Amino acid sequence: MQNDIDLKSQFNHGVLPQTTSDEFSRQEFVKSLKYHLASKISLGNKDAFEARVKPVFEKAEGRAPETYHEVRKAMSKEPYFNFWSALQRNSQEMMWKSVQQSVERQLPALINTAATAEKKLGSLTLDPALEIPRYHRAVDIHCMPGGYHTEFAKDDVANGALYDRAVYIYAMGRMGPFNSDIGDTTIDYIKTHYPNLKPRRILDMGCTVGHSTLAYCEAFPDAEVFAIDVGAPVLRYAYARAGSLGKKVNFSQQNAECTNFEDGFFDLIVSHILVHETSNGSLRMIMRECNRLLSEGGVVVHAETPPYRDLSTYDAFMLDWDTRNNNEPYWGASHELVAKDVAAETGFDPDKAFEAYQASAFDAEEAKRTKVFQGGDFGGGGAWWLWGAQK
Ligand SMILES: C[S@@+](CC[C@H](N)C(=O)[O-])C[C@H]1O[C@@H](n2cnc3c(N)ncnc32)[C@H](O)[C@@H]1O
Hints:
By secondary structure, the chain is of the alpha/beta class. It is built from 16 helices and 8 strands. S-adenosylmethionine binds next to strand 3.
């Protein structure tokens, strides 16, 4: 985004929660623990699988495990896996706690900064009457206390601040100083595969604090950028963050399943790790809404981690850890979707649907080298899986 920034730390924009040295040390410890688990400890699961679990399965069944469900059942009694899994879950809970501590300490100041920060660009429209989808109310998604929507104070921004800092720790810095890697990577794909697309209006669905959204302001300076989310605290924070970074975005609190924009209003619709957090039914409603909102020739692109069918059963099992252990109830199903099928069910021409891998814009080489990607190890790494369709 900017030339003179430190690529090894999170960019200290105007609303980022500040840390005392103890808070910073605690957060750095969690980041290092996550890195150690992903790059070193996690590898032992494969050894345990090959040396102990698979031979026992093969002896009993007369064949190797054929699905990731079979691998999971076989691994569920393996002490090494249970040890790693407990550490992984703990590292996730420690991550939120380590950031919550500093956010809570300075919450009144953060609310005030967000409310008064330089944010004359773009707009923020909240809808207190919006019904938060059940799939967000039912669980604290990925163990994030209160999810994206809970308000702990008037004009709250707590969970925006929490998410901003925690994502940097979760990704171990791999999403870059602005946590913008998924947006930057998706833009690389769009510019390569749809070079003639000159979007007048762009919509980012499930924008959270705008990590990916702001990349579009830079990549498409002539476009008007809109971003929606269901959570008010993340949107207030996103608006202040965008203002502090000099980016113009129109943020609004809306459900992507049913928005208030006119038919054909957008030439480009994107989402970044939204899909795995919505139910199967709502994903299809979102795609139908994309179809309504796109102009002719417009494109929708969703960015996620790879579908299980592209992985070995063992790697799919490891990637599926979040479904059962990290409060991600729709993670598994979302990794089984087929773009052409969803396109056909939601009004798009299946021949204009696509699935593709795009190398991470920020740090693909390092991710490949260490085989660390989004906290897991599924042998790939360094790329995002993009799917969608052209209208
Ligand atoms: C993992 S976060 C997305 C991160 C963000 N796109 C980025 O690139 O940093 C998922 C977001 O989707 C939002 N979301 C989930 N379901 C939604 C829906 N039906 N409509 C709008 N936003 C939704 C959540 O509130 C959450 O903020």
